[in-house]
Amino acid sequence: MTAVALRPRFFGAVGGEVRKVSRQLSFWLMLLGALVMLGVITLAVSGAEGLKSQLNSDPTGWAYNELEVFGTLFQIGSGIFLLIIGSRLIAMEYSSGTIRILYARGTGRLQLLLAKMLTLAIIGVALLAGFIVLAFAILAALVTSLHGNLDPVQSFSNAFWADFGRWALVQGISMGMAILMAAAAAGIGRSLAFAMAASLAFFPADNFTNILEQLAVRATGHQHPWMDISTYQLGANLNVLLNLLEPTHRARPAFASPLIPVDLTHCLVVVGVFALGFAVIAVARAVRPDVLE
Amino acid sequence: MAALQTRALSKSYGSRLAVDRLDLEVERAELFGFLGPNGAGKTTTIRMALGLIAPTNGSVEILGLDVRRHRSEVLPRVGALVESPALYGYLSGRDNLRVIGSQLGRVSEKRIDEVLEIVGLKGRDRDRVRTYSMGMKQRLGLGIALLNNPELLILDEPANGLDPAGIVEMRDLLRNLAAEGKTVFISSHVLSEVQQICTRVAIINHGRLVRLAPVAELLQDGGEFEVKVDQPDELVAALKRQQWGGEARSEDGLVITAAPDGRGRSLIKFLVDNGFTPDAVSARHRDLEEIFLTLTEDPVK
Ligand SMILES: Nc1ncnc2c1ncn2[C@@H]1O[C@H](COP(=O)(O)OP(=O)(O)O)[C@@H](O)[C@H]1O
Ligand SMILES: [Mg+2]
Fold it and tell me: What is the pLDDT of residue A191?
């Protein structure tokens, strides 16, 4: 073997990152937790009243209900999962000092960051695909047990399937935002504890701000500027994105939404600006010349 | 072409100058010692050599190429251990080698086995690194440095955390690597660690190069003499008036002094000519440790 033949390779790096994640106990524990939650939700759903009659009378409405329940579970779960895995994957290199080994090998600073983000994106996509397969298997079993066969699925409207596609798209965007935020938090703090705390606190804080704004409106008797602020919050905009994408605006946001209605363009611009901001922070912190860890 | 060359390399942290216009040239296949007390600037120099921090001034060339401009070509040919080994504690020793190996490109399981064998971690490679002793971590760090079969090894205080037996093993290992034609650059604040294996040493203090010389030469020069006379105090006073005698002092009734042009016979002639006929004059035995201490005591000398 010759040393000269070895060059830092991007996809090799992705393989290494996958190994780092897959050896983390927390990764598997969280997946296990997700399965347990899925089981609990399944039990709750299958015990719901009028389930059978709704399936027979309004199969599409039934399908939308299930999408809402299972979809909300995924939205929360995937966000927390990627924020933890992501901030850990990036920040642990600083905390453990291994960043200096990687850089001292000639790995590019940007290349390492991109390899990590791509790894997280692959995990996110796999998570979404796995969840969809699992959720459909559960629902198929449910339909079969309620109806004796899968015929009601045939009568889910085309609009439902299109909205389901939009839901998946929104999940992709949300997961992308979680990855970018984790990268930014890890870049700012360059420590495991900070990155985890910051990225996990962001969305609860974001939702809580929404409540504060409502209180401020009541306390001051003025709607401005409190309600305006809410239209520029990331969480609130992500929460209404699916609804805005749907032609029938059917989806109900599970959490805080902007206190003044926003349109799709506004929503996408806000999300895009946050994405850009997180990306700039992550890159700017990663390419700093001095590595003192 | 030098394996490692620094030119007027400087680094300041704010107003503190950690490395000050350092010129080093390390030949290929050389075992080179980089010595200095704690805080002398060894790690800072090594971090600059590895492209981890940007020099404030000057440049580093490795294997003939500027590190900053050609880092992705040069650094894969270098193996390095910087300060205490940085490892993934939750991964096994073998997985540490694997994940670093995947960063490098293709490192085969066979090579990983070889490296584990070399650093003597064969039986423990499936255990989590968190459970390793300091010495084992140091050896795994060395294993990571060796993974890509590098042409140049840069090791920052590799003996830290090793027990005496481990230090001996490390020495043998480094000698073998040098015998294979690899260049080994090793820093230390303990001279005895490098004295026995290095062909040349650079000594730095306060970021500045104090001395760069073959070990043998260091041992020879700076030689002082012990003089036994009846009037040591008068002699010291007389010596101090000489250009070469500024360091003269008396210790336990003996006068310790340098000699004119470094030679014993010139010293004896001086003594006789000045009425200090000695009872005895002998070359003072100095070991490297002492030379190291005197060199690093007084940076302006
Ligand atoms: N990140 C840093 N910020 C400020 N000063 C530093 C930093 N790293 C090292 N120094 C200073 O630079 C000098 C050289 O340090 P270092 O290169 O670590 O020495 P050595 O490795 O020889 O013990 C010391 O005075 C140290 O305090
Ligand atoms: Mg040091």
Answer: 87
Instruction: Choose from B50, B95, B102 for mutation: most chain A CBs within 10 A.
Output: B102
Is residue B11 within a helix (H) or strand (E), and if so which, with residue range?
Answer: strand B4-13
Q: Do B50 and A290 touch (CB under 8 A)?
A: no
A253 is a domain residue: yes
User: Domain B4-219 is in which class?
Assistant: alpha beta
> Domain residues for A40?
10-287
Give the distance, in angstroms, between the CA of residue B289 and the centroid of all CA atoms in the same chain: 12
Kindly determine whether residue B71 and residue A106, on different chains, have CB atoms separated by under 8 Å: yes
Question: Rounded to the nearest whole angstrom, what is the distance from the C-alpha of residue A107 to the centroid of ligand 2?
Answer: 23
| Among A12, A24, A25, beta carbon nearest to B102 | A12
Give the C-alpha separation, B185 to B194, whole Å. Answer: 10
Q: Per the CB < 8 Å rule, is A20 touching B99?
A: yes
For residue A1, is it within any domain?
A: no
pLDDT in tens, B179-215: 999 999 999 988 777 888 899 999 999 999 998 988 8
Six token digits for residue A118: 């791509």
For A103, name the nearest residue in chain B, comparing CA atoms only: B52
Q: Which of A5, A12, A23 has its CB closest to that of B91?
A: A23
CA A140, A144, A150 angle in degrees (round to 5)?
70
Range in A44-53, A82-91, B46-55, B85-94 the model is least confident about: A44-53
Residues of A in contact with B51 (CB under 8 A): 103-104, 106
CA–centroid distance, residue A213 to ligand 2 (Å):
52
SS3 B30: coil
pLDDT at A6: 57
* Closest in A13, A96, A99 to B87, CB measured: A96
A51-65 pLDDT tens trace = 888 999 999 999 999
Angstrom distance (rounded) from CA B37 to CA B296:
7
Average pLDDT over residues A23-39: 94
pLDDT bracket for residue B288 (50, 70, 90)? low
pLDDT at B74 > cutoff 60: yes
Which ligand 1 atom minimizes the distance to the CA of B47?
A: 17
The structural domains of chain B, with segments of one domain joined by +, span 4-219, 222-285
Confidence band for B297, pLDDT divided at 50, 70 and 90: confident
Most ligand 1 atoms within 8 A of CB, residue of B10, B13, B17 to mutate:
B13
Any idea which fold B222-285 has?
A: Alpha-Beta Plaits (3.30.70)
Distance (Å, rounded) from C-alpha B261 to C-alpha B268?
12
Distances (CA, A) of B74 to A102, A238, B174: 14, 45, 21
How would residue A2 be classed by pLDDT, with cut points 50, 70 and 90? very low
d(CA B200, CA B4): 13
